[in-house]
Amino acid sequence: MAFHYPNGRRFVQAAQKPIARPLKQMSYSNRGKTLEDDLNDSNEYYLANGIAVIHKKPVPIQIVDVHYPQRSAAVIKEAYFKQASTTDYNGVYKGRYIDFEAKETKSPTSFPLKNFHEHQIEHMNHVVNQAGIAFVIMRFTAVEETYLMKSGTLAYYWERMLSGGRKSITKDEVKESSLKVPLGFQPRIDYIKVIDTFI
Amino acid sequence: MAFHYPNGRRFVQAAQKPIARPLKQMSYSNRGKTLEDDLNDSNEYYLANGIAVIHKKPVPIQIVDVHYPQRSAAVIKEAYFKQASTTDYNGVYKGRYIDFEAKETKSPTSFPLKNFHEHQIEHMNHVVNQAGIAFVIMRFTAVEETYLMKSGTLAYYWERMLSGGRKSITKDEVKESSLKVPLGFQPRIDYIKVIDTFI
């Protein structure tokens, strides 16, 4: 249900959140939120402000058994997680198709490539061939740094691994080959601003 | 794992399917396939031929209980279906963002609006405001006719219902206000060709 102000403007809960927090918590620090939380907040902000329409896709599930109890909702009794064949986030910004995967690592020195799957790399290649904008958002949680790496760059490091090279991207390589996403207050992760620098 | 022909071209299973079917089944008739099956086939065809990258989103699920048995995959033991807040299909065609919902009706005379949810209408409005391409694909299964209705047109009939008007769109209205999608062999539902007529 959508609530509206008397002037007809839509009430948006996300915009209210920070006010409820004690002032001392209103720093730009991570506050224990995951990258996914931050991205969901940012996407809500983009949507509420008419900046972009980006959603996280539901987790893909293989449903095996469903019960239909009388007078109540269907219950899934057996299901399994499936490997995603695409990326987690997609949507539209100024008519352009946006597609990305978001991953974080605890390692302060490198980003492990096992965070990604062959299917996702392939999917991002397809998107780029179709003139879409595909990238990954990587966060080094230990140092609270977030980077946007274009899918072509990721594909380069992926190929390096497949040809016997290292199974991760060093922090220095990430720094050199990606765009840093400044951590802000609202939106938390303003990746649209970063996209603006290269489209 | 991707297979490749000796010349480097990728082996695409979807393109092989029709050959395995007996000739007498190779008509343009529905063969009992659902609209979703047909769209999935069409999307595979578009992907394999580099025409567009469109995927169906996973069904949104609220997971309540997961078991982690030793030496085997995690099992979801309790979960519920959630109402989708967006549409089922999205992707990219020539750099443009494509977003649609697909529904079929057994009624030969009208398309019931209860096939859609307020959230989906809102979502499609957001997409259009962001210069994306949003529409619904409607199939009248009784007569095997498929239409592409732009989201703005659907919004008009939706508003009519909200202001006390009829709860469905008559077949004649659909015919007049939508684009017919010819039923073909491969792809089954060539909606990209229809999109070409209005972008």
UniProtKB/TrEMBL annotation, chains A, B:
Annotated EC: 3.1.21.10
Protein name per the record: Holliday junction resolvase RecU
Catalysed reactions, semicolon-separated:
Endonucleolytic cleavage at a junction such as a reciprocal single-stranded crossover between two homologous DNA duplexes (Holliday junction)
Q: Where is this protein found? A: Cytoplasm
This chain's source organism reads: Peribacillus cavernae
CDD domains this protein is in?
RecU-like
- Kindly report the protein's main subcellular placement as a broad class: cytoplasm
Q: Does the keyword Nucleotide-binding apply?
A: no
